[in-house]
Amino acid sequence: MDLGLKPQPTFYMFKCEQSSPPGIPKPCCVTKDSKGLFNYMASVLMEKGIMGPVQAIKTSCLGRCEVGPLMLVEPGHYMYVQLSKEKIDKIVEEHIIGGNPIKEYLIADELWSDPLNLSKS
Ligand code: FES
Question: Fewest Cβ atoms closer than 10 Å to its Cβ: which of 84, 94, 103, 111?
């Protein structure tokens, strides 16, 4: 059976969709003000006709709650913080379609230093 070539996704957009239970003071990525950002992102990708090559994925906590709502774009470990609909529009246009990550929307270096080396050699 010939299944043909199926290309890998070009980008993954991991959007944190974790919310804290009512009464818990911990910051979280989904509040009443940020609710709906994942669906908005998915609708933008569909409108642009790039859903598929770009995979939109809901995740739980990505570990940087204090600067949420946030989203990780792979490849490249690009962590976008304090998201809004306007920022999502620009990220899709300039990073995903244009190939130029938007530095001013990325997490601060002190919150995103180099990964630990887990290699045993
Ligand atoms: S709840 Fe979103 S990063 Fe922690």
Answer: 103
